[in-house]
Design a protein that fits this description.
Layout lengths: L13 H4 L10 H12 L37 H24 L12 H16 L3 H17 L4 H13 L1 H17 L9 H18 L3 H13 L8 H15 L6 H22 L18 H20 L24 E3 L1 H13 L11 H4 L2 H11 L7 H4 L25 E2 L2 E2 L13 H11 L7 E3 L11 H16 L4 H9 L10 E2 L30 E2 H13 L9 H14 L1 H19 L6 H17 L20 H16 L2 H5 L4 H7 L19 H12 L4 H15 L12 H4 L5 H20 L3 H10 L1 H7 L3 H14 L4 H13 L5 H9 L27 E3 L3 E3 L6 H51 L40 H10 L1 H60 L5 H36 L3 H7 L17 H12 L2
Parallel strand pairs: 5-6
Antiparallel strand pairs: 1-4, 2-3, 7-8
């Protein structure tokens, strides 16, 4: 069966295949037209007399008039060239598409590789004979297949083997040998298309290695190893190539990133093709059996690579608690625990298991010999025994001896180590200098080709239906699935289709269940089950494809410290897969939720994982009518407020409301769940001054009317000053202490300032609460006034406090407002950090702004939580407080990156301008000697003074001067004036230096702000962790020493102790989340943090399981930053 339905050009005439536009004519006259088309003649002339020159311009027709039987002339040469180009592009597209879709059928028919590969092979050879352009397109298609379709690697290897050692190729070689012998010629035999493809892939591999595109390197190595059973690649050359990567592991001070990538190249190749690499290059000629022949020297060489990986793994310090999704299980139930993890350590375990069984590859993975016809396999075995009729240079591909280049510093952005090869050739457009930030497209190419920096620690929760962790089967299958998920991020629908049909590229019986037919597979017998139970240490086959896919996708989205792609990609990908087979995917998703939710009851699941899991689960429910078995969670609603399982349920309900609306979600939840997770009111604003009973209602209403009427900033400021004067009590009177809501007066100017800013902030938020655009409009309109009202840290703190009280029912809107306040520089990032950890208490605020504020709302986000000893804290079981910290740090980090890019650009322009001046000076010196006029330099581009994009509305600093206008002198005149006037030239150079120096000053300023924010967040989280751990330990000790209390009093004590313990658990989890996400940022101030903060933190008591103190975790994060 031909997967594409035959030759895609079989329906076209000869002329159309050559690129002619479609025409109903197909006679001798058309052949004459084709001849003229080839010659590119722009003139008329038909089959008779009188065909004169045509008229026309440009791309219009220049056909000649008809003579005695003469036809119209041809189109212009430009038009013909365009038609030819379009035809060539269409032909190239068809060639690529057919090769890319090899093995795939649109009509539902099965693909039989042993017969269908012959059809594909013949078609490729025919296309390759159509010219160099077609041949190059085929070479490019094979490069893409190797690095972007890993599920087809064995099939592509079989096809290449077919092209190289097919009987037609041997007969052609023998005929050419005979002709050369009869003629006495020593002319070299031309290479076959298959050999050209193989050599081109080797060339591409060298390019990938030189550019350190590690994923492409690893996938190319897997492909080369797949050619070893056919003799196209010799085992010795493959071992030599792998030895270069084992040398990386012995490098002194090798980083985890570099070591992991090199080690995984060795591990994956050996797990897939280890048995093919321990045999000799030539098998015994007198042995016709298919038994494995082992070369002792080769075995020793491969064992040496395994030992190098093992030694590297023992000295590696990559797996830390900061990368683990959940805490390991302890006690008697550890063996039955479904939650486990899979990372580099488990891959090394699989490699050692592989060595113990003589490098026998997993049986479910096809080899090239399993897919080729028996006749071709027989020829390849004859070649391996030295009995073939082809010489080695006619079918073998020589692998290069390489050295793995060192990694380059990408601190300023991705950059290629050399010329990035496009289509196997250096691309001038992609060449970059070291340290220069690449364009976004180049970064995507680099990221896709390089793959993950280090071997991540994936969370696993299925045991019985997926490959066992630490086995070669798990390494091969999960690596294949993860590569597809990562490579096809640009097309989630295609990714879902490939993942759900992955069984067709493996052995029949690899997967079982309703989602996969028993006959689905590339080779094997569906009734043969002996291979499934052949190895008890590594049971293969019979897995559930739904469980494998769901586990791989979700575990990738839960990777710590961050997932490779945005969460939305994984959410949408899993939705696409669920729609393909909802009946079989639903049980897998249900088991996933129950196991992770069940683990959260004991606090084993990381807070960051709970957060991401809740985001996916809420989005998943929104796609499927919000249906879930909520009754299973009813017992957890009796837990304390900070219990992780209850906090997870609250988070899911909150996110569902964001995706729908309050009443819609309330109707899907049982009453017991509603009481435990839903707030009594919708997430609406809490406008303190809405009630007419409030003493400031009239003034707030008047201010609201003024802002809605678009009063000018001076008018509003005058109104606020009048309000402030009215708030302060006269010297002869005092505020009514018994009923402060009656007079509304305050005794101090500081309290009046707080009230004024609270009223102004809440009125602005009230007007902007209708929509996001309304909020942006009102903030931009009164941006300058708001900046004037936030001139001091205390005033900015008052604005932040008012914001959280106004949106106390909607943490989402709190983050939106804070983000824009920081963007418009109304508040600073350091103010937000201080507000999170050291908020003003009720005692420090006027009572007139608290009585009907958001603090009194049920489930208020702004309300402080009381701790024993008169201390207060935030509700850290609410995920949004750490999100505010994350948002703030990322905001200041973004500013740092912006200024650095600006500085790099200015310095680059400065260097280029200096080079131009030097070149102009050198040219001037040469021309002066010849007596000619000196050359003039090009006009320097005026530098725009630095400013943040969010501060465009701020007045321009007077010391920067005016921006050069278009009327200023330019070109040669400007250069001449600069040359004639040394003072002016000096002034221009000073202005340019001031621009660079100003940017450097701005960078120092923003770096100082970054250090302040990082240090403040670290100190706040460390303090909170120390304080809550100590309180929880003290409460637990007091409860244990107080004896067994009975009744309600004893239950209350136990509940208080449990609540404190869970508060301490959240404190430690958010501290870990900060360390794992921002360790590379605060590692630059490690000494400062260690000396100022960490030395005093060494808590003697902590919650059970939280045995690490602040210092140990901090040092672990710093080591993680320098890996």
């Amino acid at each position: 069966m031909d997967p594409s339905g035959g030759d895609p050009y079989s329906l076209y005439s000869v002329g159309q295949q050559a690129g002619l536009p479609q025409t109903p004519m197909n006679n001798g006259y058309q052949q004459q037209q084709y001849q003229q088309y080839q010659q590119g003649s722009p003139y008329g002339g038909g089959g008779g007399r009188g065909g004169g020159r045509g008229r026309g311009r440009g791309r219009q027709s220049r056909g000649g008039g008809g003579g005695w039987g003469g036809g119209g002339g041809m189109a212009s040469s430009g038009s013909m060239q365009e038609d030819r180009q379009r035809a060539d592009e269409e032909r190239a597209r068809r060639v690529r598409e057919r090769i890319y879709k090899m093995g795939e059928t649109d009509n539902g028919e099965d693909f039989f590789p042993q017969s269908d590969l012959f059809t594909i092979k013949k078609w490729i050879e025919e296309e390759g004979r159509k010219g160099n352009a077609q041949e190059q397109m085929i070479l490019k298609a094979f490069r893409v297949m190797v690095t972007e379709q890993p599920h087809k690697t064995p099939l592509v290897a079989a096809l290449l083997g077919f092209l190289i050692i097919s009987p037609e190729g041997q007969r052609s070689s023998r005929a050419e040998d005979g002709d050369n012998a009869m003629s006495g010629s020593s002319q070299e035999i031309p290479e076959s298309l298959g050999v050209k493809i193989g050599k081109d892939l080797v060339k591409a591999f060298r390019s990938h290695l030189h550019s350190r595109l590690w994923r492409n390197v690893r996938l190319s190595l897997n492909f080369f190893a797949s050619l070893a059973p056919l003799g196209i690649v010799t085992p010795s050359s493959m071992r030599t190539l792998l030895s270069a990567f084992s040398m990386v592991l012995n490098e002194p001070g090798v980083t985890v990133d570099r070591g992991d990538r090199a080690a995984m190249c060795i591990i994956e190749v050996l797990c897939r093709s280890g048995s093919d690499l321990i045999r000799p290059d030539l098998l015994a000629s007198d042995d016709d059996s298919n038994a494995l022949q082992i070369d002792d020297a080769a075995l020793q060489e491969v064992n040496g690579m395994v030992e190098a990986v093992e030694a590297y793994a023992k000295g590696r310090r990559g797996e830390t608690s900061l990368r683990r999704a959940w805490a390991p299980s302890t006690g008697e139930e550890a063996d039955k625990d479904p939650l486990h993890e899979e990372g580099f350590e488990q891959a090394v375990e699989a490699l050692l298991l592989l060595r113990s069984r003589q490098y026998k590859a997993p049986a479910f993975l096809p080899a090239a010999t399993d897919l080729l016809p028996p006749a071709i396999v027989s020829i390849s075995r004859d070649l391996l025994r030295g009995r073939g009729e082809m010489s080695s240079d006619q079918y073998q591909i020589a692998l290069p001896e390489v050295l793995v280049p060192p990694e380059e510093d990408d601190s300023e952005g991705f950059s290629f180590g050399g010329d990035y090869l496009k289509d196997g050739k250096p691309s001038k457009s992609r060449g970059r200098k070291k340290g220069v930030t690449l364009e976004k497209a180049d970064e995507e190419v680099k990221r896709a080709g390089a793959g993950p920096e280090k071997t991540a620690v994936f969370a696993r929760w299925f045991v019985e239906s997926t490959p066992l962790v630490g086995t070669p089967s798990a390494v091969v299958l999960r690596s294949l699935v993860n590569e597809i998920i990562d490579l096809y991020e640009v097309n989630r629908k295609e990714c879902a289709r490939i993942l759900f049909s992955i069984a067709k590229w493996l052995r029949k019986g690899t997967f079982a269940g309703k989602a996969v037919s028993p006959d689905t597979g590339l080779f094997g017998d569906a009734e043969d089950i002996e291979w499934v139970t052949a190895d008890p240490q590594d049971p293969q086959g019979g897995w559930t494809i739904d469980d494998v896919i769901v586990e791989c996708i979700l575990s990738a989205s839960l990777l710590l410290p961050q997932a490779p792609h945005v969460p939305l990609y994984y959410h949408s990908l899993l939705r696409e897969i669920t729609t393909l087979s909802p009946q079989t995917l639903a049980p897998a998703i249900g088991r996933t939720v129950r196991r992770i939710y069940g683990a959260s009851r004991t606090g084993r699941v990381s807070s960051e994982v709970l957060k991401r899991f809740a985001e996916w689960f809420s989005a998943h429910l929104s796609n499927f009518n919000f249906s879930w078995g909520w009754k299973e969670w009813i017992p957890d609603m009796r837990s304390t407020h900070s219990h992780p399982a209850k906090a997870f349920a609250r988070r899911v309900a909150e996110l569902e409301i964001r995706l729908a609306y309050y009443d819609r979600i309330k109707g899907t939840l049982p009453e017991e769940i509603q009481e435990g997770v839903l707030k009594p009111e919708e997430p609406t604003p809490c406008f303190t001054y809405e009630s007419p009973e409030h003493p400031y209602h009239a003034r707030a209403t008047a201010l609201n009317n003024s802002l809605r009427a678009r009063a000018t900033a001076p008018v509003v400021l005058a109104e606020l000053e009048s309000l402030k004067r009215d708030l302060i009590a006269a010297d002869s009177t005092f505020p009514d202490e018994d009923d402060p809501m009656t007079s509304g007066k305050v005794s101090t100017e500081a309290q009046a300032d707080i009230i004024v800013r609270d009223i102004m902030t809440q009125v602005v938020l009230h007007i902007g609460s209708r929509s996001f655009s309304h909020f942006l409009n009102i903030v931009e309109r009164y941006h300058a006034l708001l900046r004037q009202l936030s001139s001091t840290p205390s005033m900015r703190l008052a604005i932040l406090t008012s914001t959280t009280r106004f949106w106390a029912r909607s943490p989402q809107w709190v983050m939106i407002v804070l983000d824009k306040l920081m963007q418009y520089r109304i508040v600073e990032p350091a103010d937000v950090i201080a507000f999170v950890f050291d908020p003003p208490t009720a005692e420090s605020l006027p009572r007139t702004i608290l009585s009907t504020s958001g603090d009194a709302a049920p489930g208020s986000f702004s309300k402080l939580i009381a701790l024993p000893g008169g201390q207060y804290t935030r509700d850290w079981s609410n995920f949004d407080w750490f999100e505010i910290i994350r948002l703030t740090i990322e905001k200041v980090n973004g500013r740092v990156g912006q200024v650095r890019r600006r500085l790099a650009r200015l310095q680059r322009e400065e260097a280029e301008e200096a080079e131009r001046k030097e070149a102009a000076a050198a040219a001037a010196a040469e021309t002066t000697e010849d007596g000619s006029a000196p050359a003039t330099a090009s006009t320097p581009v005026p530098k725009v003074p630095f400013s943040f994009p969010t501060s465009a509305s701020l007045p321009r600093r007077p010391d920067l001067g005016a921006v050069p206008s278009a009327a200023s002198p330019s070109g040669a005149a400007a250069d001449k004036n600069a040359a004639d006037d040394p003072a002016k030239k000096k002034k221009e150079e000073e202005e340019k230096r001031q621009t660079v120096e100003e940017t450097k000053s701005a960078l120092e300023s923003i770096l100082s702000e970054q250090r302040k924010v990082l240090a403040g967040a670290f100190k706040g989280l460390a303090d909170h962790y120390r304080r809550t751990s100590t309180l929880a330990s003290s409460a637990a000790a007091t409860a244990a020493g107080g004896g067994d209390e009975e009744g309600e009093e004893g239950a209350e004590v136990d509940e208080e102790v449990e609540e404190l313990e869970w508060k301490a658990w959240w404190a430690r989890e958010w501290y870990l989340a900060y360390l794992r996400q921002f360790n590379r940022d605060f590692a630059t101030i490690q000494e400062t943090l260690s000396a100022v903060f960490v030395g005093q933190y060494n808590p003697t008591g902590s919650v059970e399981g939280a045995t690490d103190d602040v210092r140990a975790l901090f040092e672990e994060a710093c080591r993680m930053a320098y890996e």
